[in-house]
Structures
1.
Amino acid sequence: MANSLWAGRFSKEVDSKVNDFNSSISFDGRMYRQDIKGSMAHAEMLGKQGIIDIHESEKIIAGLKSILEDIDSGKIMLDPNAEDIHMFVEQELTNRLGDTGKRLHTARSRNDQVALDIRLYLKDEIDEILPMVKELMKTVCDIAEKNLDTVMCGYTHLQRAQPITLAHHLMAYANMLSRDVDRLKDTRKRMDRCPLGSGALASTTYPIDRKLTADLLGFEDITQNSLDGVSDRDFCIELASALSILMMHLSRFSEEIILWCSWEFKFIELDDAYATGSSIMPQKKNPDITELIRGKTGRVYGDLNTLLTMMKGLPLAYNKDMQEDKEAIFDAIDTVKLCIGTFIPMLATMRVNKENMRAAAAKGFINATDCADYLVKKGLPFRDAYKITGTLVARCIELNTTLEALPLEEYKKLCDTFENDVYEAISLDTCVNMRKVPGGPAPESVMMQIEYIRAFFLDM
Ligand code: ARG
């Protein structure tokens, strides 16, 4: 019976509805490894410091190890009636060891215990998410390398703007993802402080060795104030924020894929394994994965909001409200992992329709800037060149033609500086290939962008 842990102060059992209401084991049970690992380190420290007998410490550690093995192997199940994972493990230990088990919680509170568990758990999760983001970046770089000369239209305001390549476009996402990697690492660094020893809020009178427990658990350092140690959830909020930004990037990428799959664009086609049909319209092939990612982005933003709102009115130190941190941050983590895991193979298998991309780029006068630049390079002030080109575009629209197909006489009517070499200057390939400044769309420039991402993010 979970309640028996505080039986001394209470004269009757907690109402069963209240018990269910208070219980967090249905969602914090997933931290059992971290909880047990934390308890093992705590027990070792208690023994080394002579706070409990060294033999009892050894027994506790062995007992905890056997509980871990039994949960891992499915030999024992988490008791849904336990209030939380911390109570469950302690109760199970006491069932196995008797009085020795009851010594584990010396110089510790569930408040510093839960603050520890969640940090350990989230560090482990970041260590799983980081390689996933890198895998996605690798996929993006590989597709980009195959499309260095796949000319496409770049957009602003979703209006055709200037020629770029698919590789250039994709590498924008690789750069966004590289910042996500940085943010996740940064978040991990700040949460890498061990709060154990903060006790309920005011630390403890026992001669504990906080550095030792921190070292045993692989923390870089200890938290510096016991009140903050138990009541800080900044690291959850930072992680939810980093994950929200990551989801925003995936959502933008998804939105483009949705557009590119449409008949209006037809820039790409998803593999049949990563698209769905309609129950009524036989012609349909829907990009459901990307729509779901776009939709699930809202969930993660919601999780971030839950955490921010949960914390904003809390007086120091621990308050039970903080139990709500877990479902929110776990949901954000699960959602991100699910989305990246599905997005990668979908991206890797999509087919690029190079001809359609180029055909779309050939319309819409996206070489107009280059036409103006042609005149500037021959000595005209940019504003004059801009005006002349604008008039040329209007003339093309009138004649239902393009700048490439407009006869030289039409050019010359507006400005005598135009010669036959204008056609070379405004060809889509020239427009792309001449933009070879760092960051630009020329194949050699994009190759440098790919190499940069590979060297600094993927080869580590
Ligand atoms: N289940 C609790 C949580 O997740 C653990 C800490 C409870 N502490 C307490 N004094 N009630 O926050």
Note: The mean pLDDT is 95.
2.
Amino acid sequence: MKISKICCIGAGYVGGPTMAVIAQKCPHIQVTVVDINQARIDGWNDENLENLPVYEPGLDAIVAEARGRNLFFSTDVNKAIKEAEMIFISVNTPTKTYGEGRGQAADLKWIELCARQIAAAAESDKIVVEKSTLPVRTAEAVKDILDNTGHGNKFQILSNPEFLAEGTAVEDLLAPDRVLVGGEMSPEGREAMQALVDIYAHWVPRERILTTNVWSSELSKLTANAFLAQRVSSINSISELCERTEADVSEVGRAIGADSRIGPKFLQASVGFGGSCFQKDILNLVYICRRFGLIEVADYWEQVIKMNDHQKARFAKNIISHLYNTVSGKKIAMLGWAFKKDTNDTRESAAIYVADHLLRENAKLCIYDPKVSKEQILNDLNYLNTRTPEENEAMVEIVTDPYQACKDSHAIAVLTEWDEFKDYNWDIIYSSMLQPAQLFDGRNFLDHDKLQEIGFRTFTIGKIIPPVKPYKEVLNA
Ligand code: UDX
Ligand code: ADP
């Protein structure tokens, strides 16, 4: 089966970059990305590539090459479904915020709506590809809807989970460690899998394209993210121990990572992992295990989340204790809001929770992030519902100049490892701050020796923390 037209429903962080790369590598295939969000589609169609709704290094060049040739962005979902032989579902599957499974299970509302829309619009047989992260056995539900609500057309459901990481999405898509295609083990299922394998084979070596049954594919995605998040929580747990001893978590990470059985990646201690996938996928795994009565398995994975929450909270508490146990009315500069560098995505970013903790203590925050908008930062805080939007606006200032963020502050908290932070003129920043100038590096990546030479009191994850000076001593100094 040769595919000439693809449709992708959902023009987000996954759908947009993935389809741009498929279009670039397969110029003979027409790729149409559709979304119900008009503003998003307008962003993807914007002449000015700086306005693309997703920031990813290298993405603008790929979009520029393929857009208008064989890559199209549109809100006409039905037309794209009708025309395509293969339809990717790449809509959001956030954690449920209501009802049964609230706070844990994935909300499959949008997936179901997509399935119903495909069934209603399709006028011929289709291959439907699940790209969004989904709980195991979702394909079964999608197939059920397609088979029972359509006009007699045949549907093959494939699972093709995305393993790209934000910030390196283009690299990951161009040279993936593996591509996973799961499908039904029937002749029709194998034919559909082959059609998708043939698309990836235009640029991915065949031995890196793995085919499995559909359930293994769905579960592999959750498991991969759970294992990666577990490594971060594991090193973060050790970071707390390092702070009490004279061990240094970077040295411990380097030493254990040199063991080829462990490997060096994902051993960077931090203020806590964020992103749209890790927490959501683990919660999903935990929910599924509980539903099957696998209590020990569920508890085991849940601990990864608990450790992460602990890491975020103790970073905020550490700031408060070093500011003499009160941050009330004090200006604290926050550098970075995105959940990692090189992305404008803020979903589940540790910065949100650290900020909320400090705001509960009546701190005044001044936030700077090179890629995140003011509107997004306020949305993230408002979404927590801890205080009214008006209160958030009053307590939080968002600026476009990092020097202004730090000026007159009592402390700086570094929440994202943006490269540009290393190149700032820290002498100027130091002299513009209130003394003693304190800096809390939640990413363990600045040059602390240099900062201390300038005069900063620096605190970082996983290195011994100087004792808090008694308040009296500070007053007398
Ligand atoms: C992740 C998976 O890596 C990717 O394969 C999957 O498709 C989606 O989920 P992503 O969330 O985009 O990707 O970013 P990732 O690089 O995995 O980082 C996740 C979080 O962990 C970030 O907040 C990052 O700062 C943090 N992290 C990562 C650490 O704190 N330490 C590390 O050593 C690595
Ligand atoms: P991800 O990180 O998984 O790509 P995003 O939230 O960035 O998630 O993107 C998902 C996109 O899917 C959003 O732009 C949303 O508007 C779109 N979407 C959700 N439901 C539908 C639907 N039924 N039809 C078309 N687009 C949809």
Note: The pocket of adenosine-5'-diphosphate (ligand 2) is lined by residues 9-15, 34-37, 40, 77, 90-92, 110, 113-114, 132, 276 (CB under 6 Å).
3.
Amino acid sequence: MRVALFISGGGSNMLSLVKSMTGDHPARPCVVLSNRADAGGLAKAEALGVATAVVDHRPYGADRGAFEAELQSVLLRHTPDMICLCGFMRVLTEGFTSQWDGRMLNIHPSLLPKYKGLHTHQRALDAGDSEAGCTVHEVTAKLDDGPILGQARVPVLAGDTAETLAARVLTQEHILYPAVLRRFASGDMRPVTLP
Ligand code: GAR
């Protein structure tokens, strides 16, 4: 199973996935693709010997279809079987998602279906939630929707800020996403629940 990983930033989730794909793991990374040339994750992927590519969304303006056509074209050069979105901060339209139906995963920093979209940690704090977490799900045309393949929970602690809560959730993201990918790549669709 050849896995393409999409990033927009530091790529810590990408790194945890790439590092997990060794030994008897049923998958291997084939490319790390970013919509930003300055994404910190690109150098980290190169240091691990993984091919990288950049498709900048900005020249396409509001023409998402043209951006996604180029994304797909660059992607297919690396012959992936599936895609893992790892902090990829562009919304993908149905024109793209339908081509990867059942073959594209995303990690989202909330306990979906709560807090789709942005600012998930601040919204959990504002709501007075006692727990927060992250979700890995299949990507469909609807934003942060699609079948849930795994969730990890953390407590919200007194005095938490969005930053301290995000850091606590991120440590779980690095455990959850590799666990889900390993199952998914071996054809096991049972959801992973952590801790
Ligand atoms: C992660 O927390 C991920 O869950 C989130 O962006 C961060 C990326 O960090 N993704 C989203 O918000 C997607 N809507 P990373 O680049 O260090 O993996």
Note: The chain has a mean pLDDT of 98.
4.
Amino acid sequence: MAAVSEGTRSRSAAILGAARRVVVKIGSALLVDSATGQLRVEWLEGLAADIAALRERGRDVMLVSSGSIALGRRVLSLGDGPLPLEASQAAAAVGQIRLAQAYESVLAPHGITTAQVLLTLEDSENRRRYLNSRRTFETLLELGVVPIVNENDTVATDEIRYGDNDRLAAQVAGMAGADVLVLLSDVDGLHTADPRVDPGARLLEVVEAVTPEIEAMAGGVGSALSRGGMRTKLMAAKVANRAGCAMAIVRGDASRPLTALSEGAPSTWFLAKGDPAAARKRWISGMRPRGRLIVDAGAAAALARGSSLLPAGVTEVEGKFSRGDPVDIVDAEGRVVARGLAGYDVGEARAIMGHRSDRIAELLGHPGRAALVHRDDMAI
Ligand code: GLU
């Protein structure tokens, strides 16, 4: 290991120590032995021990793991060269089941329940699906589960792919309101130049903002197994930081990679301004409302105390909006008291307004969520 700087050690320890919700991205090159195509089980066991330690300290942990294609292509004897899209999708389908199984088998001995979540780009771009995924993550984490996320490579065609799990991990971190994202990689972090060609290249230990100068330092492609190079990592940093989430790049090949990071392994930290909740509120307040929910005095007071908006407190619904669209919440005097993302579309909102939440299923003919606007989706 390269020399550990005191600054890096205390920075990493402080950021990880204060984190509440951590997303760890694991690249294919760490997980799958490039010579044999086999899973590196021992390494995975070390990672599992680190995850268990975080869980014991009460942290929520989510993993975004690559490796489905790398594993599946071996099983199918598809060789080492580039694969046509259909072949990589078939490989992903075969590999993903093994990947999920591998995590399950190393985490279960620690008493950790895992869940598999496969996402496509549309799940973060379409607001309705975004909200659904977000709620599901929240519920899984509340139940103490460690979600294992990958791109749904089998159905994602080129136009709707992330294509690299660095950016997927950053989206997941934003979606789930994580405050730390760790990219376990095959490099120490971001250097001032490509260290493979420039012996004078220096590791940047901390990046306050991804400026064009910083972007110019990122080289080109990644390793033979993984898709992401430094460029996608910087894109990930921007997405994460904007969502109030700090991001680290660190070599993942230590036997306890997260312990190594917190003990000062060389790394680059990209710092966020503010926390995830503040970033989310900023994002919501900046949206253009598609409708208005008029609420009674009781509901307005409850919102001010930090509650969700229940349908019972709504007296009128105006505008044209779908689930996930921004709406203004307005009191009887016409004052905007909050802006939030609607949990129902306009027709459903009209059908349930003024009613208690336990009547939603009967009124809509299908079960629904208790809140018309959830407090996490609201800026006062
Ligand atoms: N989703 C791809 C896989 O699991 C990996 C993408 C990447 O390497 O970033 O194989």
Note: Residues 28, 66-70, 92, 150-151, 153, 164-165, 226-228 surround glutamic acid (CB under 6 Å).
